[in-house]
Design goal:
globular, Rossmann fold, seven-stranded mixed β-sheet, Four Helix Bundle (Hemerythrin (Met), subunit A), binds 5-S-methyl-1-O-phosphono-5-thio-D-ribulose, alpha/beta, four-stranded mixed β-sheet
Length: 339
């Protein structure tokens, strides 16, 4: 591994998928070992591994276990259907399983090769996007990121955090701000830890402080990842992204979405068609298992929101930049690869 990229969220040893338990980071670095496809489904649903591309990679190795262990094609299909349902918004999960289904094989060795290719391609895409996105930044600029989009959320290096890593390496970043990202605190726990590990100084803020930070002129770019990008450029990402995009437009900051084409779903016309995952309200009412909210209060916990394409200044993919995404500019991204 090269500099500014020292973390991986998974390890495949040929038999077992080892997942760094992201629920316990940064205070404990423990592993969850997945010996079966059902183990992988449970780990994804429970947030042991999270972040759209990382979920896709874990699912691909989960599929390898299903191909090896299922006693019949019917049983395998049931396991794969459960895996596909583990988290509904991140399209990389369905995308990875569709890529494996398209092999049209019963040979688990071929499936294992495909899973390894999915992981390797994701890392390469992140490096390419890091370069392209960093090229948009002016020296000394302040950047704000949301959730965790780094090595932990991908095959390595990261999407939005990959751009920040690369821009930092090139001496372009004046300050990195990270939202804490309620309720799972991916920003406070994971992004801050990743940046710390790479020696990149970062300042955390409450999600609700972002608009003031922009008003003070400290943010030139808001840089986020995506769980799914629709064919018209609408973006599903961590809850709070939509508010950041509105605040960025109001305050004259740029809004950059960094996502590989594996996160683009040309099968959905607009954000309204993207399924938004709602998780139990309890996740909002307690911290580390300790109830904080008043007894009797209920929680509303959508974990993603949709940012309309008109608020996106640029979408960075491994195939190139899409400025002000639209139906036609999104279609261009895939023009050369349509069959
Ligand atoms: O609920 P999570 O932690 O899986 O949400 C992750 C995000 O919203 C990320 O921004 C997105 O997956 C892009 S990660 C490269």
């Amino acid at each position: 591994m090269s500099g500014f990229d020292s973390i991986r969220p998974y390890r495949w040893d040929g038999e077992v998928l080892h997942l760094l338990d992201q629920r316990r980071l940064p205070h404990q670095a423990t592993e969850v070992r997945c010996h079966s496809c059902a183990d992988v489904s449970r780990a994804i649903a429970a947030m042991v591994i999270r972040g759209a591309p990382a979920i896709g990679i874990a699912a691909a190795f989960g599929a390898v276990l299903a191909y090896r262990q299922a006693e019949s094609p019917e049983q395998r299909d049931v396991l794969l259907a459960d895996l596909r349902r583990a988290r509904p918004t991140a399209v990389n999960l369905a995308w990875a399983l569709e890529r494996i289904a398209a092999l049209d094989t019963d040979d688990a060795l071929l499936v294992e090769r495909e899973a390894a290719a999915i992981a390797a391609e994701d890392l390469a895409a992140n490096r390419a996007m890091g370069e392209l996105g960093a090229g948009l930044l002016e020296p000394g600029c302040g950047v704000l990121t949301h959730c965790n989009t780094g090595s932990l959320a991908t095959g390595g290096f990261g999407t939005a955090l990959g751009v920040i890593r690369r821009a930092w390496e090139r001496g372009l970043v004046g300050a990195v701000y990270a939202t804490e990202t309620r309720p799972w605190l991916q920003g406070a726990r994971l992004t801050a830890w990743e940046l710390q590990e790479d020696g990149i100084p970062a300042t955390l803020l409450a999600d609700s402080a972002a608009a003031l930070l922009m008003r003070e002129g400290r943010v030139r770019w808001v840089i986020v990842g995506a769980d799914r990008v629709a064919a018209n450029g609408d973006v599903a990402n961590k809850i709070g992204t939509y508010g950041l995009a509105i605040a960025a437009r109001y305050h004259g900051a740029g809004f950059m979405v960094v996502a590989p084409t594996s996160t683009v779903d040309m099968g959905v016309g607009g954000g309204g068609e993207i399924p938004v995952e709602h998780r139990p309200g309890d996740e909002l009412l307690a911290l580390d298992g300790h109830r904080l909210a008043a007894a009797g209060a209920e929680g509303w916990n959508p974990v993603f929101d949709i940012t309309p394409a008109e608020l996106v200044d640029v979408l960075v993919t491994e195939r190139g930049l899409v400025h002000r995404p639209s139906v036609s500019s999104m279609a261009c991204l895939f023009e050369d690869t349509e069959e």
